[in-house]
Amino acid sequence: MLQGQTGLSISYDTPTGQLMAERMQVTLPLAVMAMVLTVGLALALGIYAASQQNKVGDVGVMTLSQLGLALPNFWLAILLILLFAVHLEWVSAGGFPGWSAEDGGGVWASIAALLLPAIALAAVQTAILTRVTRSAVLDTLREDFVRTARAKGLSRRQVLWGHVLRNAMIPVLTVMGLQFGNLITSAIVIENVFVLPGIGRLIFQAIANRDLVVVRDVVMLLSAMVILINFCIDVLYAWIDPRLKVGHAG
Amino acid sequence: MSMAENPPHTLLQVSNLRVSLPTARGWAEALRGVSLQMERGQTVGLIGESGCGKSLTALALMGLLPERARVSGSILLQGQELVGMSEPQLCRLRGARMGMIFQEPMTALNPLHPIWKQIAEPLRLHQNMSVSESKARALELLERVQLPRARERLEAYPHQLSGGQRQRVMISIALACRPDLLIADEPTTALDVTVQKEVLALIKQLVREEGVGLLLISHDLGLMQDHVDRVMVMYGGGVVESATTPELFAHRAHPYTRGLFAARPRLGLARGTRLTTIPGSLPELMDLPAGCAFSDRCSLAVADCLKIPPQAENISLQSPLQNLPAEPHRVSCPRWSLI
Amino acid sequence: MQVKNSVWRRALRHPSFVAGGAMVLLMVLCAMLSLFWSPYPVGDIDIPNKLASPSAAHWLGTDSLGRDIGSLLWVGSQNSLLVGFIAVGIGLGVGVPLGLLASARRGWVEEVIMRAADFTFAFPALLSAIMLTAIYGPGLVVSIVAIGIFNIPVFARISRGAANSVWSRDFTAAAKAAGKGPLAITMAHVLPNIASVLIVQATTQFAIAILAEAALSYLGLGTQPPQPSWGRMLNEAQSQMFQAPMLAVYPGVAIAMAVLGLNLLGDGLRDVLDPRLARQR
Hints:
The complex is a heterotrimer of chains A (250), B (339) and C (281). Chain A is mostly helical. Chain A has helices at residues 16-51, 56-70, 73-87, 107-141, 144-151, 156-193, 199-208, 212-240. With 339 residues, chain B is of the alpha/beta class. The longest helix of chain B has 18 residues, at 193-210. The N and C termini of chain B lie far apart (49 Å). The interface between A and C is medium-sized, with 33 and 34 residues.
């Protein structure tokens, strides 16, 4: 396995490598969509809440995030299905049509199928990340260099965008890295709710079928991904914070 | 921004500045009627212990008080009223007409921005300089503040500089747009003793060269003696005594000022001499009496002192035969002569 | 005693604490009452009446087997509470001593314990819980144990971190100088001072345990029939989505309220306990 070879699945009678590649076509786009939604929303809401500290906007965002934290993500998924698939009939209640246009699939159809799952996945993550962003921004606003910036004549807005955000990103990045494990776990459940043929569902079925070859290989794959993500985050840290760069000018 | 051309205004005229801050126990009067006056090229020192309101005065001048603070009174910067001015207007003045240096150089600079960028920021903001122009000017400024290896240091980050060096960068930032007023809030307190003298000398030199008015805030009497033209002593949110430096160091009137001078440790005292202290301690803002803030620690206090706020009056401590100093010696204590 | 009174007064004025506390109390009362009584016995199957709409007889309607939804929710609270208590109990009972040991001994003991904790963190918790149920079979006991195991490293980390900062304070150095042994110091000084952090974390972990159990039950790996479980109710409701959509709403509301109540309680406790204790020093 460590040399890159994968085993043969007992239940599917296919090489696990092939199985995983197929399933990743679903899970990877799903994860990316969920992350994009999460980061976009959380940063926007978190910064807004921090700039409105203790006023109505802040309280509103904090309440929303409390609710977001309390919702089981699979319940949110079911509610979304109820609203958009059963009631409004805008999308189907589950399943995945496939990326190729044959057999009724296609790019847009696939994205539509992944949209509700991505929202369900993103909800809890957004709630957590919004809180972290807000507190990171508030902490940074208390720093001395913010006062220096204002003494230069920068407006509150200019200080926020020019000085605070980049500094506040450091703790936010940390949490994003930690959230990756959460994302994988949630994907298992969400893929089951929407009956998506992804890695999450693969692992669930494999465990149920006692197909340990598949389980072993998928776990290895996921661990490798976690390591890769953490490495990317470290690189991002060094890019943001010059104190972490190796070697420096005189 | 309208400025009258003639006659030339006093650089800074503060009248009866009052600041109230909301606290858990209600509104507290943090500044209780501060008045001061400064001309171009003058250096005024503000001295007092922690909590007397000197830093708050500086922040009030710059308009950097917390949003919920209530300010009343008047601050005239070259005839322009700053109290009640809108935030965008204040932003145009900050950094351009008034500059400030803070106490902690280690945390005053943004760790993620290179040095040149931090100096260039006010230049680009107020004088619309391009990146290359501002970078060139930043180099000039760094050389002026005598930062060694200035050219290399342009691209450096704050964590690569020592405290003294960072403070020099702060000075160059504050003076970048050639302001008329420079406020230095304990600029050397956090620095090593050897560096303190250099940095202060630098500030004085630049202030002289640029003809800038300097408000120097400190708790160190020695500093005041060497560096300022006029000293104002603060206690409990108000100015208790103000005079020219030689005058104050020769004659003191207010009981608090006397206590302050008496408490200085001096060389040459006999072994075992107890250092004089002012009895009691600074009360909480909310607990200050309606009258004189110093009353409960003052040896001259009577019942009225607690109730009636003292008025500032001009006094003369020198013999009638000597020339009166050009600037008045003011004291806020009706009973000062009884010591 | 005087301390406790003022803490209580402050707590009762804190909106998060009051709201959260009320919700949690409600849930606890429901669970305890349900041991003795429920509107309908949950075993009662009534096929002719299946998927009925809300009525005077059945306030929330019935499910696909004719069982009263209200009763199912009512009794289901037992399940959630049980999981929460035991899982958090395991975490506290095993994790805290480990963390305290790591902090008191330092050196290689601390290293070993913390590395083990990190290792457990590396595997996503639900994944490992699913694996455990695959090995040992699904069921309430297995899911409680699985969730409980994942609370151990959480509490070990937290108690070790908090204990470290207590050990570095002057009064523990004084106790050491007076000749007190590490066990005595831990019990008398360290534990009381980290108690507030642990209490707050316990409410958070309780909420996480409820969510985890719900997810496991939804996947069919948790509580098995006939014991009612909110998570499993959601799974059953999903297949009836077109006929009786509301069935998918009620159990989720129950879960969300339980978790929300615990989160609010935890937030309130954190605000009330920590600054209080800090000032009492």
